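Hypothesis: this fold can be encoded by more than one sequence.
Test: take the structure tokens below, design a sequence, compare later.
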């Protein structure tokens, strides 16, 4: 199954490692360092501020959707499997 993470981007759910809200990213020095180390892999899908970060094995997506919204969408997808 695929999860729509913003703009016209969908990600295969099996590729998703984590979905993290922006407050967790900003409050954790380890997460800030992780983001800095992967600057070349970041795809910003927002026209303003991001609400969550979707991490896959080879990309980091800044999503306009909240982590709660993405979680609900992924649960719907998994319930249909």
């Amino acid at each position: 199954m695929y999860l729509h993470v913003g703009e016209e981007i969908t990600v295969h759910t099996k590729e998703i490692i984590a979905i993290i809200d922006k407050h967790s990213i900003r409050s954790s020095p380890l997460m800030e360092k992780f983001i800095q180390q992967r600057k070349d892999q970041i795809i910003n899908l927002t026209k303003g501020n991001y609400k969550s970060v979707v991490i896959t094995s080879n990309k980091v997506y800044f999503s306009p959707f909240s982590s709660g919204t993405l979680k609900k969408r992924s649960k719907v997808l998994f319930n249909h499997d």
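The CA atoms of residues 31 and 37 lie 10 Å apart. The chain has a mean pLDDT of 91.
Hypothesis status: open.
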